[in-house]
Predict the 3D structure of the following.
Amino acid sequence: MAETKATAAKRDKMSSDAEKFLTFALGDEEFGIGIMSVREIIGCMDVTPLPQTPHYVKGITNLRGQVIPVIDIRAKFGMQETEVTDQTCIIVIETTIDGRPFSAGIIVDRVCEVLDIEQNQIDDTPQFGSDVDTDFIMGVGKVNEAVKILLDIDKVIGTSDMSGIPGM
């Protein structure tokens, strides 16, 4: 049976409503960031600490000649520090801050997978009251029986308290 134009248009629209997210874990919680922000995933490497930076900025590292800041996303989110394992890695992201390209590494416990999440599977960020900052959460993805916290990586790393970091 031939596919009608209406069916084909609906199928194309549904596939275009899906967005790809790289998911990663911090402890038992899973998060996702838009795949278009991800440049690469690398193993943990030496990081040179920087004085007078926020507690969650581990320092800087040399990535093939480019010096980038490395952010401990666990510390940024107020989570307890854990041991580095063989699954701990750095997701190198690219974004734009104040109209300039910017790269940074975020330390995560482990990378999980790349997921296609349809728009109808993404709920708005729950409200927790005025004392809880959720501006960096773009939504909550429902995948099968699991929930993924979808991050707006620009808001996670583009805050004004990172202005003293080289490259910002």
